Amino acid sequence: EKLPDPTVLPVLLASVYHLKKANCSCSVYLFLAYEQLRNPGTLSRVVIGDFMSYYITNMKSFKSYISFAEDQIPRGFPTIDMGPQLKVVERTRTATMLCAASGNPDPEITWFKDFLPVDTSNNNGRIKQLRSGGTPIRGALQIELSEESDQGKYECVATNSAGTRYSAPANLYVRVRRVPPRFSIPPTNHEIMPGGSVNITCVAVGSPMPYVKWMLGAEDLTPEDDMPIGRNVLELNDVRQSANYTCVAMSTLGVIEAIAQITVKALPKPPGTPVVTESTATSITLTWDSGNPEPVSYYIIQHKPKNSEEPYKEIDGVATTRYSVAGLSPYSEYEFRVVAVNNIGRGPPSEPVSTRTSEQAPSSAPRNVQARMLSSTTILVQWEEPEEPNGQIQGYRVYYTMDPTQHVNSWMKHNVADSHITTIGNLVPQKTYSVKVLAFTSVGDGPLTSDIQVITQTGVPGQPLNFKAEPESETSILLSWTPPRSDTISSYELIYKDGEHGEEQRVSTEPATSYRLQGLRPNSLYLFRLAARSPQGLGASTAEISARTMQSKPSAPPQDISCTSPSSTSILVSWKPPPVEKQNGIITEYSIKYIGIDGEDVKPHEILGISSDSTQYLLEQLEKWTEYRISVTAHTDVGPGPESLAVLIRTDEDVPSGPPRKVEVEAVNSTAVKVSWRSPVPSKQHGQIRGYQVHYVRMENGEPKGQPMLKDVMLADAQEMIISGLQPETTYSFTVTAYTTKGDGARSKPKLISTTGAVPGKPRLVISHTQMNTALIQWHPPLDTFGPLQGYRLKFGRKDMDTFTTMEFSENEDHFTATDIHKGASYVFRLSARNKVGFGEEMVKEISVPEEAPSGFPQNLHSESSTSTSVQLTWQMPLLAERNGIITKYTILYRDINVAYQPVELPVVPADTTMTLSGLKPDTTYDVKVRAHTSKGPGPYSPSVQFRTLPVDQVFAKNFHVKAVMKTSVLLSWEIPENYNSALPFKILYDDGKMVVEVDGRATQKLITNLKPETSYSFVLTNRGNSAGGLQHRVTAKTAPDVLRTKPVFIGKTNLDGMITVELPEVPSNENIKGYYIVIVPLKRSRGKFIKPWESPDEMELDELLKEIARKRRSIRLGREVELKPYIAAHFEVLPTEFTLGDKKHYGGFENKQLQSGQEYVFFVLAVMEHSESVSYHEFHSSIFLNVFKKKSSSFALERAIESETCTATLFSYSHSLRTLSVNY
């Protein structure tokens, strides 16, 4: 390279020379940015000198270096503040070489190792430089998992634009540990079962890590080319023999070994043949030799009867080699053997040994003892060997006597050596003898048989044999027996009784071998005897046997059910068992059913498994203050009996858990507030609310101040309270709580209210009435104004009216004149003063104006209806301002307009506003006027109104009435004379005259539709053809409410006969409901389609149906009707849950006709109600169902085609008689 300054060249050449002399293979390149130096010649020498002084100082062969003056170093030149230090680290550990430098600008730190730059990018991140900012700059070198190649001399180099500074070198030494191998987890010994498996683990450590292998004797079990380092697991399977396995660990520093012993366990050997050392009638004592050198855990003794196919019985856990086996049968041969058991299992059994137990007296009596007569003095007795002879039977003893009450030792005895039959002679004829038999061995006598009876009479049968009784059911017992040895039995006589003290009953049966006795009581003990009869007489009866009938369900419920409520959530139920004679078995348990009637939980509950010894049970976790229906049932093993009569009881009261609702607080004035509330939610009242408490306290800065106060109102229906005596302009907190007899409940959330400032007191008020229908009101300010007055407010009006006139005045006004003051009326005046807070308390004064005669006449005089001889008149009272007092009566003045001076005056007392004028002339026009009276006299007559009576030969409709009232329609009806033939239509006005319909009077009825449910309507029937204004009739009716919204449900498809079943609605019980009708309406076809003539049954005129209902029952019509008409298919007093349409049966006198193929139908339900008056309205809470279904020709399936809206609560009324028929659908 060309160097700009020749003075630098000698120094560079000297540096290269000495580096090569020091065997350094690297080339040194020095790049000088000469143009950036302020003093090129001097600074170049300084940089080169510093570089050479760093490297050449560490070369022993170079004894001098070039130095420059410190003051010649440029400003900002890097400085090594902390250089690397000598460090020793173990291999695989982390080494960190520290370095910190400063300069201006901040230098960049790099590292050199053995004079070469350290490359941190080619070692997978093992060597990295750690950098951090600040002053000085830090740049440590971190070497992870250090290796021997990392050892060397390290230098830290700081470089910036001012130059480069090298730190003093520091050596890093990497130390390698040398540890001979050792076992960190040596192999362990194992015991295994024959054919078992085991894994042996061997782990060795050292430095370097050793290789590990397994050997069995001199055989290598681990391949040489697959020898693991540090850990080796030997897997052994199906091990049959014990062996020693050697684990060998080896490295360059040595070889070590460890041995694992694998022991294969073995089952014990069979013990020696057992030896019998002692024998009794029921036990055998055995001894035996262990036969095993190894310890035995215990022994098992096996035994069974010799030559038996049954398995051995075992006696487990025998710890010794001597044992007595008890519980054996006398004089029986047994086979014994012994099995040894160790911790591996049981070994094979020993050789068996056989032996016989000793004799014993028989433990059972001879079997099937029979006796029969050979002659009148000799009997033949025979028997069979006992079931348990317990030895060799040596003989038998037969005892007999005529007095069985004597002890058997006093009986006569007859010994039999070796036979099962004997005869006994020299007996007394015509006597009954009792006979017993026993067997004996060489050890002693066995038990006696039950005595049998025999009558010493020729031809009389002996006792039946094997008489048994077996219960078959709770009411029957099967008796069976074996006939006595006689060929002349004609019948049997059965004697039985119910219990020890029951009356004996006798039954004669055919000569069979069994008899079923029926009609018995459940779970009862019966006693039986049986005797055989021949033509010669009745033989001796058998010994008495007993049997008990099976159990049955109890036939009566528990008795004396009582309930108490010890707490608000529990009920104690007490009872007594059913009567003993009706328990029909052993009572095994009781159950309790209960259901809440008025609570939130209305599901039925049942408590099962109550002990039969219990006579009470505590029902817990119930709802508070809730009425429950409770019943108790007794159970036997067969099942439950009937439930007891239900007991109603309410749980005890408790404090309300819910606060009063909708608590509101309103400031009334400066010292009082009004607190209002609603009662707590019913489900959280938990008792009868006795009253309410209002708690309040004064508040300052959001905190209570002073003592809380309480106001109590002891009224259950109280819903507000005025709290007075408060301080003006003060904030209070109010809470309300309800209380029962148990205490007060939860409080409502606090409500904050501030009282207003003080308002003025009552003003002073003076009222003066004048003669000009006016009143002068004068007032003076109140005594307590609590600040400047801002005005007054006056409210006044008639006392008998609800509306008052309100006026406000300024603070300077002090009087007012009220006009239009009516005579004969009382007026109320209320005056209050107002300040900045508001209006104060009102001063109230009343005045009464004296009465006078009315100054006005009655209003709106008109005729309601008329006949040929009468007119019904209606009018309204005079105007309020013109009445001048209380109307006491009216006077009607009328006259024939053709007679000028003969008016008739009629008083109307009491003061009714309607009057019927009778005794009039037919087809005559009358002039009518009316006036009102007070206590002071009559007022003026009204303007005259003319009315004309009907001609004698023209009679208008009569008996205008409501025939049927539905939810949205009313059926009106009237009557006309037989000769009535007028073409002039009638008019019906309703809805306050807003609606008018015309109808042919000869139709005698009209269905008014599209009305509102549960609404009152007035209907006027009029004939406008008369020149005098027409005739009128008026009736009123109220439509039924719309309260139900359910429909019936079709259940499945139709069957082949075209029938379909529908599920009918549930209806509440109502004593006024007298029956239900199922109505079916066939739809007519038009142009191939079925037409539904109305959307609701409200629009259907049900005349034919009403006639059928009125007749109650009709004759059954045979054959098809030509015209399709609605018909009643069924009548029920109680509506069933299901009904099948078209089943051709009769229900309540009505035929449920078969549905025709291809025809479409509508059906609904009618309910009949009865009430005493014609003008009355009832609600029927049922559902109206309009369902359309079709019966197809091909499949005869009925399907729902159309479902209309639900209609409810419709009433039909016949008002012709006192007994009214009402139909709801």
Structure description:
Helix 1 runs parallel beside helix 2. The C terminus is likely disordered. This protein has 1225 residues and is mainly β. It is built from 4 helices and 93 strands. Strands 73, 74, 77, 82, 85, 89, 90, 91, 92 and 93 form a 10-stranded antiparallel sheet that branches. Strands 2, 5, 6, 9, 10 and 11 form a 6-stranded mixed sheet that branches.
Keywords:
single chain; 1225 residues; mainly beta; six-stranded mixed beta sheet; 4 helices; membrane; transmembrane helix; cell membrane; Receptor-type tyrosine-protein phosphatase S; Ig-like_dom
Oligomer state of the chains in this structure = single chain
Please state the CA-atom Rg, rounded to the nearest Å.
63 Å
> Which percent bin holds the helix content?
under 10%
Query: In percent terms, what proportion of residues is strand?
Result: over 45%
Averaged pLDDT: 82
Tally the helices: what do you get?
4
The major β-sheet equals:
10 strands, antiparallel
Distance between the termini: 123 Å
- Count of individual beta strands: 93
- Overall 3D geometry? flat
List low-confidence stretches.
17-68, 1025-1029, 1113-1122, 1171-1225
* Class from helix and strand fractions: mainly beta
